[in-house]
Write a structure and sequence with these properties.
- By secondary structure, the chain is mainly beta.
- The protein has strands spanning 3-7, 10-13, 18-25, 33-39, 46-51, 60-62, 70-74, 80-85, 94-102, 105-106, 114-119.
- Strand 7 and strand 8 form a beta hairpin.
Amino acid sequence: EVQLQASGGGLVQAGGSLRLSCALSGFTFENYAIGWFRQAPGKEREGVSSISSGSSAGRIWYATSVKGRFAISRGNVQNTVNLQMDNLKPEDTATYYCNAVGVAGARFSWGHGTLVTVSS
């Protein structure tokens, strides 16, 4: 059974930082890039960042809106991926999810996300 567990969200003031963690299990981690996505109220889910695995391990992508503020990395614990979010803005407020990334986008059914609220 695939499990995608995002954690680390919370309430923070604008300019603050949070570190999200994603624990993944139930599939071969090395076969997929792992991505962070977010969905703000009333908006569609969007990609935030991803990090590749396997032969192209370490290739990283960021959405323009978070470039220079967010940093994705593999966790010290096996099959975990972190998202360090600095200089947070109110527009970063959303529920954040992690997932494996396939050719057509998110590969598996969504797990429970973690809510990030940035106050102005």
